[in-house]
Structures are given as structure tokens and as C-alpha cells.
Write a structure and sequence with these properties.
The strands form 4 sheets. Strands 2-8-7-6-5-3-4 form a 7-stranded mixed beta sheet, with helices on both faces. A 3-stranded antiparallel beta sheet has the order 9-10-14. The chain has a two-stranded parallel sheet with strand order 1-11. 42% of the residues lie in helices and 15% in strands. The longest helix has 39 residues, at 239-277. It has helices spanning 15-21, 37-57, 70-88, 103-111, 127-133, 156-166, 185-188, 228-231, 239-277, 310-319, 339-343, 348-351, 365-386; strands spanning 3-4, 64-67, 94-98, 115-117, 138-142, 171-175, 194-198, 209-213, 281-283, 300-305, 322-323, 328-331, 334-337, 354-358. Helix 4 links the parallel strand 3 (94-98) and strand 4 (115-117). The chain has 13 helices and 14 strands. The protein folds into 2 domains: 3-9 and 256-386, Aspartate Aminotransferase, domain 1; 15-251, Type I PLP-dependent aspartate aminotransferase-like (Major domain) (Aspartate Aminotransferase, domain 2, 3-Layer(aba) Sandwich), CATH 3.40.640. The chain is an alpha/beta fold and 387 residues long.
């Protein structure tokens, strides 16, 4: 028995995306910047994909900048705004982000000497702390729409209102990489001037993404040279990947409602059963005896397991055919607690037993059954070994 429950890391390509991509890997290989018939064919495909992504993201086609993925899009949002403001000598030199952002945002903000804003025990941004961090010196504010570890959704509309009040000259960016499969990003990210997405999180290929840059947003290009993407991102476009991303995005729009309902039910069964059957297990990002998961992504099951080390547990799960991950990273040969869990106030000991089980568009009840058949025994085995 095997099961893949690491869809937050990457998810399989949708059949629609594969079908759309294949012709551009073979006969339709033209460079869209060229002038001959083969190049014009590629350009038309690129333009059509741009229209589809614009519809999916709630923006104008000219506001879509194709990138190599979410990391590049996030980097450009932070570095690009800071660079433009520095060039303009506008006095806005500070980047602000929550302490639970993906490292693609966190590291650029930290490198620029920016300000990190606290979250509460659920992982939701502390709006009072955000207000205190804002001021006329702030150039860019980055608050992710949904967290890649905990699955917690942020109140972006309230964030945007605070930014308008406290730092009216600042640009608001949201990392919607984890959100797009599950949430109406076109509506929820509407207050943001910059929006990042990555294809491989919703059924497109790895290595392609997009940054929405709404008209009038001051942002510099990271890559310069050929002037592609209206000089906002130079380099020959990955036509095959972009076409496949647009096809995947179209498929998401077509079945998102049914997918969310189906996967939410599976996720709830998975979490509730494990909470009941395995002693010493808690769910991150929720509070109360009967936790409300309405502020979490449908596919997110993030657990904290007492008296177990994530690394050992993942080894046993992998050996049993279960693909999962932990909210930890390996640094210098030691497992360090996740910065997300640390920001949420989770102790180092408990964070060391974190487990991220994430469902996706192809997940089935059999995947849930496989985890439920293996995980309780694996936890019990590790605890007995430690006695």
C-alpha cells in the first residue's frame, strides 16, 4: 500500500496540462520573440495563456509577468519594489513581512534589514503588531494568502486596509502559491498590487509561475537583457510550461468548488481519526476542543506529535510507502524547528515532532486509509524504542 500526501511540496500534472504542453516540446518549438511563422505560432499560444492566467488571477493580461516559479516571483516582489523606491529616492526603504512567510519572501526581507511581524498561536498575523510596523518609510508589505506549512489563511482584506491607513505609499504583495488550488485568488488577492503563483502547486509543471504586477506598481526587473514581458522579466519565455500552467489554471477554475468539498471531507476524516486514535497528537493552527478549520486550506493536515522525532517518523512512513513531510529543515546535520512553528509559539520539543500530510487534486479515500493504517503503529513503535 502506498500513498502520496505531500501535495503542498508539489502535485502531479493534470492531464489537461500535459496535453497542452506536449506539442510545444516537439513540433511547435518556436521562440515567441521571433518574426517567422513558427515564432508567431508560439507567440499566439503565449498570448492565449496570458489571457487565461489573467482571468484566473483577476487581472488584466498585461499585468501578468511569467516567471520561473514562485521563488522568483516572491523575490521580484520584494527586491523589485525596494530597488525602484531606492532609485526614486522616495524615502521608503523598509520591507515588512509576517514571521511565517516562505523563505522566498523571508530571506529577501531579512537581507534588506526589514521588519518581521508576529502571528498568534493559530498562525494568523497580529494586526496590532502589523500596524506598529507600518509607517511612511515602508516600501513593500508581504503577507502570504495561505501558509505552506500550517495551511492557515491570512485576513488579507484587513491587512490591505491597515497598509492603506498606516503606509499609503507602500506596495502590498501576497504569496498565493499555496492558495491558488483551494481559494478564489482573483477575489481574495484583489487588494494586493503584487501576487505570486507557481504552476506545480496546482497541476502545472515545475519551473514556471507568474507575478501579477498591477498597472502603476513600481517594481524593477530582476532579470534584464532581451526585454521580454514588457521589460519586467527578460529571457525567452518557457512557452510549453506557460501553456501547461494556463491549462492547469483553467482546470482549477472548472472544478475548484467540488474539489474543496471532496478534499475537506477527506482531510477532516484524516485529522479527526488521528487525533482520536493516537495519544499526544495536536493539530496546529486551531484552538478549542472542537476546532474550527474554516481558516485553513482544505488539503492541509499539519500535526504536532509528542515524544516523536519527525525525521524518524518520516523514515518509517517512507518505508511503508507513505510520502509525507515535516515542518522542519535539515541544517548542519541537525533538525531545526520550523520558523513557522516557532513564530506560532510551539515549543522546540513539540515542533520536533511535526508532520505535514497534504492532500491534492488527485487524492483519494484510499490515500487516507493508507495513512490511517500505518501512522498509529509507526508512532507507537518510535515511542517504545525511546523508553
Amino acid at each position: 500500500m502506498s500513498a502520496y500526501l505531500d501535495h503542498a511540496a508539489t502535485t502531479p500534472m493534470r492531464p489537461e496540462a500535459v496535453e497542452a504542453m506536449l506539442p510545444f516540446l516537439t513540433g511547435r518549438f518556436g521562440n515567441p520573440s521571433g518574426g517567422h511563422a513558427r515564432a508567431r505560432e508560439a507567440r499566439r499560444a503565449l498570448d492565449d495563456a496570458r489571457d487565461q492566467m489573467a482571468e484566473a488571477l483577476g487581472c488584466a493580461p498585461g499585468e501578468v509577468v511569467f516567471t520561473s516559479g514562485g521563488t522568483e516571483a516572491d523575490n521580484q516582489a520584494v527586491h523589485g519594489v525596494l530597488a525602484r523606491q531606492a532609485a526614486a529616492s522616495a524615502g521608503r526603504t523598509v520591507a515588512v513581512a509576517t514571521a511565517v512567510e516562505h523563505h522566498a519572501v523571508l530571506h529577501p526581507v531579512e537581507r534588506a534589514g526589514g521588519r518581521l511581524v508576529a502571528v498568534d498561536r493559530r498562525g494568523v498575523v497580529d494586526l496590532d503588531a502589523l500596524a506598529a510596523a507600518l509607517g511612511p518609510d515602508v516600501a513593500v508589505v508581504s503577507v502570504m494568502l495561505a501558509n505552506n506549512e500550517s495551511g492557515v489563511v491570512q485576513p488579507l482584506a484587513e491587512v490591505a486596509e491597515l497598509v492603506r491607513e498606516r503606509a499609503p505609499g507602500a506596495v502590498l504583495h501576497t504569496d498565493a502559491v499555496q492558495a491558488f488550488l483551494w481559494l478564489d485568488v482573483a477575489a481574495l488577492a484583489a487588494p494586493a498590487a503584487l501576487v505570486s503563483v507557481s504552476a506545480h502547486k496546482f497541476g502545472g509543471p515545475q519551473g514556471v509561475g507568474a507575478l501579477v504586477v498591477r498597472d502603476g506598481t513600481p517594481v524593477e526587473a530582476l532579470l534584464i537583457g532581451g526585454g521580454q514581458e514588457r521589460e519586467r522579466r527578460s529571457g525567452t519565455q518557457n512557452v510549453a510550461g506557460i501553456v501547461a500552467m494556463a491549462a492547469a489554471a483553467r482546470a482549477v477554475l472548472d472544478d475548484r468548488k467540488a474539489l474543496v468539498e471532496r478534499v475537506t471531507a477527506m482531510r477532516d476524516r484524516l485529522v479527526d481519526t488521528l487525533l482520536h486514535d493516537v495519544p499526544g497528537v495536536a493539530e496546529s493552527g486551531v484552538t478549542g476542543v472542537a476546532p474550527d478549520r474554516g481558516h485553513k486550506l482544505a488539503g492541509s493536515c499539519h500535526l504536532l506529535i509528542d515524544d516523536v522525532e519527525s525525521e524518524a517518523l518520516l523514515f518509517l512512513l517512507d518505508d511503508a510507502g507513505i510520502c509525507a513531510s515535516a515542518a522542519s529543515s535539515c541544517a548542519s546535520g541537525a533538525m531545526d524547528p520550523s520558523h513557522v512553528l516557532a513564530a506560532m509559539g510551539v515549543s522546540r520539543e513539540l515542533a520536533g515532532g511535526s508532520l505535514r500530510l497534504t492532500l491534492g487534486w488527485p487524492s483519494t479515500e484510499a490515500d487516507v486509509d493508507a495513512v490511517l493504517a500505518v501512522l498509529p503503529g509507526a508512532v507507537d513503535r518510535l515511542r517504545r524504542l525511546d523508553r
